[in-house]
Amino acid sequence: MDTLTISLAQFTIQQGEPDRNVERVKQLVDQAAGEGSGLILLPELWSTGFDLENKARHAAFNRDLLPEIQRWADDHSLYIGGSYLLERDGAFYNQFVLTGPGGFRCDYAKIHLFRLMHEEQHFAAGDRLALAWLPRITTGLAVCYDLRFPEMFRQLAVKGAELILLSGEWPERRIEHWQALVKARAIENQVFFAAVNTTGMVGGTDFGGQSSLISPWGKTVLDAGRQEGLFTARIDPGEVAHARKTIPVLSDRRPDSYRFFA
């Protein structure tokens, strides 16, 4: 059985304090490697939080941080995924970067910007999906508010995604939505769905935790509750093919018929 061990890093981001966040994540990366993990998933904007008034300074910090993340990935033979505040061609993006051994990198710029946190005033929106072909499993990337747009995840599944990684900062007051949607996205697309949230008070907002890993059958493999820490589990990528063969949802789609009567 060719399994994959995944770690979810749920912690309280220190908003606007990247040095403290990097120190914390380095500890979690070392712990994940020690537990034999092949992949660690981090929250949205994990190094800085939503300190968007200082985005230029944070983008410069993150630009210099990414080579260090690459060294961690190489040293531990580990894939490291999470969202960063980055600048490109004079525009700022909320960008998921999946870094892996041997110089591997896959980027996804968040498509759906969350107006309640004024993202559209600070970020440019991405305009394309991203798939990462990891050694054991084809993986789609997503960030937080994307979770509310099922058409995005259906396209990822149709194009071959077997695992979705979602990096989030989702408030406690809407945590029931997070829990329901993470499970729904896994079931309807017959994928493993790994979603990491921050937890605790960050920048005056109470974030809800509940990072989780859901199987293609909708079973909860991991649930972090509201605790800080590293949560690790092993999955069998073959479970995706088995689910899709048992209930051939993707094969039974009829997109040519999804239209209204004239």
Explain this structure to me?
It is a single chain. With 262 residues, the chain is α/β, with parallel strands linked by helices. 27% of the residues lie in helices and 29% in strands. The chain has a single domain, classed as 4-Layer Sandwich (Nitrilase/N-carbamoyl-D-aminoacid amidohydrolase). It has helices at residues 18-34, 55-76, 150-158, 175-189, 238-246; strands at residues 4-10, 39-41, 79-88, 91-100, 104-109, 131-133, 138-143, 163-167, 192-196, 199-202, 205-208, 212-214, 220-223, 229-235. The strands form 3 sheets. It has a 6-stranded mixed β-sheet with strand order 5-4-3-2-1-14, covered by helices on one side. Helix 1 packs parallel to helix 2. The longest helix is centred in the N-terminal third of the chain and has 22 residues, at 55-76.
Please state roughly what percent of the residues sit in beta strands, choosing from under 5%, 5-15%, 15-25%, 25-35%, 35-45% or over 45%.
25-35%
Give the strand line-up of the largest sheet: 5-4-3-2-1-14
User: Which bin fits the share of residues in helices?
Assistant: 25-40%
How many individual β-strands? 14
Report the end-to-end length measured between terminal Cα atoms. 51 Å
Our Rg estimate from Cα atoms comes to 18 Å
In terms of structural class, how would the helical and strand content be classed? alpha/beta
Major β-sheet annotation: 6 strands, mixed
Shape: globular
Task: Present the secondary structure layout.
Blueprint: E1 4-10, H1 18-34, E2 39-41, H2 55-76, E3 79-88, E4 91-100, E5 104-109, E6 131-133, E7 138-143, H3 150-158, E8 163-167, H4 175-189, E9 192-196, E10 199-202, E11 205-208, E12 212-214, E13 220-223, E14 229-235, H5 238-246
Parallel strand pairs: 1-2, 2-3, 7-8, 8-9
Antiparallel strand pairs: 1-14, 3-4, 4-5, 6-7, 9-12, 10-11, 12-13
